[in-house]
Amino acid sequence: MKKTMISLMLLGSIATTLTISCSRDEDNKSLLATASNSENSLVLSNSEVLCSYISKPYVDWSWSYSAILKSELETPEDTEFMKNELKKNAALWKLNPPKLGFVYDPEKPSSTYNATSYTTGKIYYGYAIYEDAKSKSPDNIVNAMILAHEYGHQLQFKYNLPSVKESTYRSSELEADGFAGYYLRKPEGFNKKEFSEIAAAYNFAAEIGDYAEKDRNHHGTPPQRKTAVRLGFLLGEFSLSVNEFDSQFYYYYSSVLEGDDPSVQPRSSRFRVNPEIDQKIQAHMGELKKIASGEMADSEFRNLD
Ligand SMILES: [Zn+2]
Fold this sequence. Notes:
The protein is mostly helical. It has helices at 2-20, 23-35, 46-54, 76-92, 127-134, 141-159, 170-185, 199-207, 222-235, 242-257, 275-283, 285-292, 298-302; strands at 68-70, 99-104, 115-118, 122-126.
């Protein structure tokens, strides 16, 4: 009896949503309610709310017109997993988590194969990419990595990073992969001590790499993305601030990719080589160069310690 009533109530609320064509606004309200619990909450501007109200269920220009913004994934476990992952990412850097929304598209489900980080302090994560990534490993590490990558962009927005700017998005994207590799290793992050345990994650990063090196949207080639995850993972042995991570990442990444080209060296005037970190990374430099050049076989890469 109780069950029937709940079902009817649910049906009622779906009908209401469909009739007023304003699920975005409803979702915004619930997201605002969630966000208001955190000090780092983002209050949507009037124009954002107004726009969503008058334009049917429309998320924003990053998503298709039929996409709908939701505050939850399909199951409470999935939602909880992602919220908890985001909380751990933020806590690792002693920050409050940004707002997290999920995007669902009943008409074109594959259009939500994407995740977006916004300069306004929020991350929207597509249903399709979540489901596909979840199917790739029992511990859901691929979603943990994608979210850590998107969170890496939040760190970049907040700290005006990366310190190395290029004419494409590559330096931002590779550093976000590095932040993800760092997070996967940290005990208070995803806590994977063995590199072999994060295979599903770096394989995914490599798969979505590209060779459009002149395109503004270039994210790095598959070998470069693998190198970035590996370098981040190696740096995960140390405790760094956000700015220290950026300097260390670029100091070593630049020597892997660009040799001694001064235009891609970290700009921070405060940068100092840390002898302990230097010893560790230099010991892996040959290996990093081999990954970046694409010469390292998958089997060798998988078995790195
Ligand atoms: Zn990215």
